[in-house]
Specification:
Blueprint lengths: L18 E2 L4 E2 L6 H10 L32 H9 L8 E3 L4 E3 L8 E4 L3 E2 L2 H14 L6 E8 L6 E9 L3 E2 L6 E2 L5 E6 L7 E6 L10 E2 L36
Parallel strand pairs: 1-9, 2-6, 10-13
Antiparallel strand pairs: 3-4, 5-12, 6-8, 7-8, 11-12
Length: 248
């Protein structure tokens, strides 16, 4: 019996400068050491997995990854388990302003990958500066992950940077909200570099706009940057300006 799958309607018009891709790809080579390291990770196969069964990771004590389900035995299983919650129908429609669902979406359902070019930190900084100078829309998404090391006073940080401004998919059109109905999760399937996946954070009604918080799990706000853009999400919890991820 064939499994039901959720299908994202991606037959909308893309800008002429945008190359449509199904999943994230490596940025063009700039011959830098950072790029060579990133390329090595991109071409590597992830071998170390926890020993939990395919029903999902166990609790923090039993799972070697602390119960972090994005490291479950097969990352594809995580996405497939969530897509099977919906039928084989187009669920979203898109225009240049937002992404809106055509049908109700259950909490936890996988919606799409935030696909784009995988960047080095130096290239991300360069593109962000260029976007500001040109007044261009900034689509660069910076995901920071922290894992415990042997030194209890220091966490190891892994940065994944995705830019769908030149090459991307429908994920680039999902807007920010301070009270989102979706969230992003890093999912590793067979590569050390994770896929940035968008999931439903709650049950979503038909015709609702899909949004996630551009700051990810880092919802706290210390200081408003002088060049921050105003947030127009109108949520009761709205911070008043868009979050800015820092690249260290």
């Amino acid at each position: 019996m064939a499994q039901s799958r959720m299908v994202v309607n991606d037959d909308y018009e893309h800008p002429d400068h945008l190359e449509y891709i199904l999943e994230s790809v490596l940025m063009p080579s700039d011959e830098s050491l950072d790029f060579n390291l990133l390329r090595n990770d991109y071409n590597s196969v992830l071998l170390h997995k926890c020993q939990c069964d395919k029903g999902g990771c166990a609790n923090n004590e039993r799972c070697s990854h602390g119960g972090a389900y994005e490291y479950c035995p097969d990352g594809k299983e995580l996405i497939q388990r969530q897509t099977n919650k919906t039928g084989n129908i187009p669920i979203v429609e898109c225009n240049s302003f937002c992404v809106r669902t055509k049908v109700s979406i259950p909490c936890g359902a996988f919606i799409c990958e935030y696909a784009g070019e995988i960047l080095t930190i130096s290239e991300a900084k360069r593109r962000i500066v260029t976007n500001k100078k040109l007044g261009s829309m900034n689509y660069v998404l910076i995901l920071n992950e922290y894992t415990k090391t042997d030194d209890c006073y220091e966490d190891k940080r892994q940065v994944t940077i995705i830019d769908p401004s030149r090459r991307g998919n429908i994920g680039r059109y999902i807007n920010h909200s301070c009270d989102p109905n979706c969230h992003i999760t890093a999912v590793r399937i067979d590569c050390p570099i994770p896929k940035i996946c968008v999931f439903a954070a709650r049950s979503i009604l038909a015709q609702e706009e899909l949004c996630f918080h551009y700051g990810g799990e880092d919802r706290y706000v210390e200081d408003q940057a002088s060049d921050s853009k105003a947030c127009l999400c109108s949520a009761d919890s709205c911070a008043g300006f868009m979050p800015n991820s820092k690249i260290i």
